[in-house]
Amino acid sequence: MRIFLTGATGFIGSRIVPELIAAGNQVLGMTRSDAGAASLAAQGAAAHHATLEDLASIRAGAEQADAVIHTAFDHDFSNFVANCEKDGRVITALGEVLQGSDRPILITSGTGMGTPGPGQPADEDVFNLDHPNPRSISEVTGAKLLDAGIDVRIVRLPQVHDTHRQGLISPMVDIARAKGFAAWIGDGANRWPAGPVDAVARLYQLALDKGERGARYHAVAEEGIAARTIVETVAAGLGLPARSITPEEAPAYFGWLGMLAGLDMPASSAKTRARLGWDPTGPSLIEDLRNMDYSAI
């Protein structure tokens, strides 16, 4: 297949490219720059110049493809809600191209969308519209495409990590450095799920190859790591103290991240593993945090 991949030069997308090519596919990767195009060419992929704001160019990329994988997202988290709304517009534009065909689209969401209730691991078969994460906009938009007859599949992400980036933990590192200490909220027992980036990339390929219309897949290798464990590991890497703060202190410390930092968000991938034969291997989140060069970020 010829696959249009948004975010093709990004943290996850750049790992998906070789997975797709190794499976015998051609990749048309979306990029904003000539440097990105050169990187794609070095991987054996073609480049399509577009930005998330240029919906006409995004549509043009999808028109050339047999399938679409959408991983691009504006990671300026200070404008998180606006960027989630932007993601909804991009998904809508991609769907307009796929309407009336059997060409699949994989879109990206977060595992929190599958939370069935307090303390319960997120489940692939659950879509919790009451979850406070505004990334729900992506899945709501995907559901509209599904209702319109489009083959939509969803990959939900935990904290995706290597020794350079770790999802929302990366901005937590920046906050700790700026504040002079690393913090968790309350007792720090709330949990975040995680998955190593290369295993996550393999899941996208499997979801395209073996996935089903309307299915949701969880890219989770570890069901939940306690926030306190994460924060203490980050603090050790930065050479900073670590301590608890109250929920009332969280907004001033975390800023925009305060709406998520104290959430308990464990997630299961049992159904994903059974349905796709996915076996996530690789380092744990804490291993990557311990092995990170904090002086380089």
The global form is globular
Structural class: alpha/beta
> Largest beta sheet, briefly?
7 strands, parallel
- Count of helices? 12
Order of secondary-structure elements: EHEHEHEHEHEEHEEHEEHEHHHH
Note the beta-strand portion.
15-25%
Number of strands: 12
Low-confidence stretches: none
Q: Report the C-alpha radius of gyration, rounded.
A: 19 Å
Rounded average pLDDT: 95
Write a brief structural summary:
With 297 residues, the chain is of the alpha/beta class. It has 12 helices and 12 strands.
Commentary on this structure:
- The protein has 297 residues and is α/β, with parallel strands linked by helices.
- It is built from twelve helices and twelve strands.
- The strands form three sheets. It has a seven-stranded parallel sheet, with helices on both faces. Strands 7-9-11 form a three-stranded mixed sheet.
- α1 packs across α7 and α4 packs parallel to α5.
- The longest helix is centred in the first third of the chain and has 19 residues.
Keyword list:
297 residues; alpha/beta; seven-stranded parallel β-sheet; three-stranded mixed β-sheet; 12 helices; 19% strand; globular
List the helices and strands and how they pair.
Layout: E1 2-6, H1 13-22, E2 26-31, H2 34-43, E3 46-49, H3 55-63, E4 67-70, H4 80-98, E5 105-110, H5 136-147, E6 152-157, E7 159-161, H6 169-179, E8 182-185, E9 191-196, H7 197-210, E10 216-218, E11 222-226, H8 227-238, E12 242-245, H9 250-254, H10 258-261, H11 270-276, H12 285-291
Parallel strand pairs: 1-2, 1-4, 2-3, 4-5, 5-6, 6-10, 7-9, 8-12
Antiparallel strand pairs: 9-11
Helix pairs in contact: 1-7, 3-4, 4-5, 6-8, 8-12
